[in-house]
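Field reference: "sequence" (input) and "structure" (output). Example, Nesprin-1:
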Amino acid sequence: MAEDQKNKYLGLYTILPSEISLQLAEVALDLRIHDRIQDKVKEIEQSKTMSQEFSRQIQKVAKDLTTILTKLKAKTDNLVQAKTDQKVLGEELDGCNSKLMELDVAVQNFSEQNGQLAKPLAKKIGKLAEFHQQAVRQAENRLSKLNQAASHLEEYNEMLELILKWIEKAKVLVHGNIVWNSASQLREQYILHQVTLGKIVFKE
């Protein structure tokens, strides 16, 4: 602005008075300072916006982890469905871990220019990482219990199948013709077997 005004005077072959020239220089300086301040304000506003977005993403991951952890702690009597749910929850945990790692890198880059704004974000991410590890341990514990339950169920089914076979055999015996021998007859059969066994041993 000062240069334009000065050129205007020079174009008219008029020498710009020194006092006016000084005032114009001061105005130009003020304008440059004002522009710099405005740029700095915009930069600060952008940094705050980014910080708020990081906070929103951190809260989203925390909410997802809370939901996953609640499902992992839930009890169920459907083993097949529980195994299916376990697989889905494991995939969701992996997704949270990937998002957490991305946030960690992004916040580290953000901290290079915005150290003060990045400090609370880094702290939140640290706590979120601990929360994620808690969910992972819960998932591993649940998977171990599901595997044990599956093993016990298999043993139970095998035992049940054997018992059912015994029951069927018992039914056949109950409905069949059974010849009951008296005690004396059983004793005679025992002696006969003993004698027969003795003869066999003697021949050998």
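Residues 14 and 49 are 51 Å apart (CA to CA).
The radius of gyration is 44 Å.
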